[in-house]
Each structure stands twice: as structure tokens, then as C-alpha cells.
Amino acid sequence: MTNQTTAVLGLGAMGSAIAARLRDTGHDTVVWNRTAAKTAPHTEAGSRAAPTPADAAALSDTILVVLLDHASVREHLEPLAADLKGKVIVNLTTTTPGQARDTAAWAVEHGLTYLDGAIMATPDMIGTPASRLLYSGDRTAYDAAHDALAVLGAADYEGEDAGLASLKDMALLTAMYQMFSGLVQAAAMMRTVGVPAAATAGEVTGWLGAVLPHLEQFGAVIDERTYEGGQSVDFTRAAIGSLITAAREQGVGADFLEPLLSRLDELSATGRGGADWTSVTEQLTIR
Prior knowledge:
alpha/beta; 8-stranded mixed sheet; elongated
């Protein structure tokens, strides 16, 4: 390990977990937070507290930014452009791909070494085998900061486009929330006959575990873009229609299912009812 110092800007739940993990693995750490009182547990554990972001930058080689949102990142970094020269900036704040590219362009304009990151973990997962962090942008920044980044979790470099890490993060989170929405729908339906949501969650876990291996097959079909064979649009329309009817019979809305049925109806009406149902992918591109 090098003798470099890493600063953590932002001590919310995630920033605090990152600072603690860096300390626990022998890294010299500097912490800053808008509410200074939040630095106390970290200084007691061995970190140094900086009164301002500029002071944190002056004391550090690598700066990990773990703030609330894109606006707060720009608010705190823009006044520091001169102070950040020669430092490695790693933005771990959740942002959209466009926002990541925007900050990267600002960094290039000011001659700064900048890397964008996305955290595929909850605070309690940081430093465990389940933790995965995605990075994209300046490869020099990734290599320079790697010693610190590697202790936080699996460190995956996605490419030079600064928006790639955020894009993958947002795509995977989209799949996660769609899955969670399915649980909510199932729980609402089963609750009408007295089944606790916890019991339904157990059933959903088992069922989804059985069907998850099919996702790679779906991915291959989508990549081929011929959409031949497999479960057809018309078959799936009937299946989704039945699910919506079943929900309504129980007095439960079907808001999560209706948009998919609308897409399938459109495909069928335009003569593509025999295509694989995953061809709805083609409809999602905004032209």
C-alpha cells in the first residue's frame, strides 16, 4: 500500500462507511462534512478532520466525493478548481450518466484528474465480498486511486466514457426496482386473502430464483434483434391480461403491469404478435 492520504467529503451513511473502511485497512484519512459534528466519531477513530473542503484537498492525494446529489458536488467542487490541481478526484455521489459527463467535462476544462464512480452496495456492505463499485472516465485517475478503491469492494473499470459507471448503475437499479414492484404487486394481491407479505416474499424469492437463469437467454435474444421463437407477443399479451384481471378481481390495481400490456398491444396491432415478446425492447428507444 502507498503512503497516500485519502479525503472523504461527505459523512452520511455511505461516506461514513467508506471513511471507516479506509481507516480499518490502514489508509491515512481526512474527513469533511458540512455539519462538522459528524466528523467527531471519525477523528476519535483516527481520521483527521478538515474544516473546509479546500483544507481537505490540501491534506490529501485522493479525494472521494460522497455528497447528496449532482448539485451539491458542483457546489463544493467548483470553487476548489485551483486547489484540486494534482489531486485525484473520485466522485462516488449517485448521479445520472449525463451529470457524470458534465462534471468530467468541467474537470477537463480545469485540467483536473477526475474519475466517476457508482456504488452497487449499501453502507453495511462496504468492504465485504458483496460490495461492488463501478468506475469510468480517466484511466490514470483509476490507476492512481486503485489502492484506496480496492478496499471498498470489487473495483470494476467500465471505460473512458465518464457516464458508463452511472449508466450501468442506473440500469441495474432499474431492474431491481422493477423486481421490488413485482413483490409489492404480489403482496397486495395475496393480502386480500389474509396471506402476510413476509410469506409472499418468501414465495417470490423461491420463484424468482428458479427463473433468473432465463435472463441470459433473454439477453441473447435481444442482442440478436431478430426476435424469432421463444414466447410470443400474443401469448404474453394473454398472460399479462390474465394477471391484470386477477388483480382487479381481488380489488387490487395493476398499475405496474398495464404499461407492459400497452406495449404488447401495440406490437400485436402492427403485425408483430408472433415475435418474441422481448421485442418490446425496441419500443423503448426514444426517437
